[in-house]
Design a protein that fits this description.
Order of helices and strands: HHEHEEHEEHEHEEEHEH
Distance between the termini: 52 Å
Oligomer: single chain
CATH superfamily of the largest domain: SPOUT methyltransferase, trefoil knot domain
Radius of gyration: 19 Å
Number of helices: 8
Strand order of the largest sheet: 7-6-5-9-8-10
Helix content: 25-40%
Largest sheet: 6 strands, parallel
Number of strands: 10
């Protein structure tokens, strides 16, 4: 494997280079299988440290590049590299392609990539068609986001936009420390769930679009000040699916 190619792939660990190159990396057999099989993302390079058949990877032809364990460790971001790493093209999905009846999760300055990836996976699980991120939220194609999403990147529509661009006629729910309990909320399908940042909650510029403030009440003697944003998202999405 040429050193030039190793440098090219390693550079994709950085957001700036992903944006410039229009490519990102995915690792792990299950994640890569899912993303290859759906056809949503076009593979540019497929690196394998072991012999994996094209059928195992969901490919019509055997297009893998065999690499050594050392070479895989040079391009991987994992402490224990997987047997497979795929470089995909980042698709161009303008906000105008979003369907008017999509259920949407909006990420307002959610910066932890692990949380963003987990929320994408939750959206897939609970049948929420789209996840939209503010421009200051974690990049959807950050390797840690891809890892946490576990292939669900290929099952959920992903967009970048201001909340003001997508509100339209939708009901907008926002998560707050004080509000109507989610168990007393009658969720509807044609809606947006806004999740605020881990440290500051929903931003001032987006607060004016919130029509229903919702919350998850805990025990009166709790020590924790708040729930992790992805944990809160899971609880809310389960109730959203149940009542809508």
């Amino acid at each position: 494997m040429e050193q030039k190619l190793i440098k090219e792939v390693r550079a994709l660990h950085l957001a700036k280079r992903r944006k410039e190159a229009g490519m990102f990396i995915a690792e792990g057999i299950k994640t890569c299988q899912t993303m290859l099989s759906t056809g949503k993302f076009k593979p540019v390079y497929i690196f394998s440290a072991h012999t994996l058949s094209h059928l195992e990877l969901g490919l019509k032809t055997d297009a893998t590049i065999k690499v050594s364990a050392k070479e895989m460790s040079q391009i991987s971001q994992l402490k224990q590299p997987s047997d497979i790493l795929v470089v995909f093209s980042i698709p161009n999905t303008p906000i105008t392609t979003m369907k008017s009846d999509d259920k949407i999760i909006y990420l307002d300055n959610v910066q932890d990539p692990g949380n963003v990836g987990t929320i994408i996976r939750l959206a897939d699980w609970f049948g929420i068609e789209a996840v939209v991120r503010s421009f200051d939220s974690a990049d959807f194609y950050n390797p840690k986001v891809v890892q946490a999403a576990m292939g669900s990147l290929a099952k959920v529509n992903l967009y970048e936009a201001e909340l003001s661009e997508i509100v339209g006629e939708k009901i907008v729910y926002g998560t707050y420390m004080e509000g109507t309990s989610i168990f007393e909320t009658q969720f509807i399908d044609n809606a947006i769930l806004v999740l605020g940042s881990e440290g500051h909650g929903i931003s001032e510029k987006n607060a004016k679009y919130i029509q229903e403030k919702i919350t998850i009440y805990g025990a009166s003697n709790k020590i924790a000040e708040s729930l992790n944003v992805s944990v809160a998202a899971g609880i809310i999405c389960a109730q959203w699916l149940r009542t809508s």
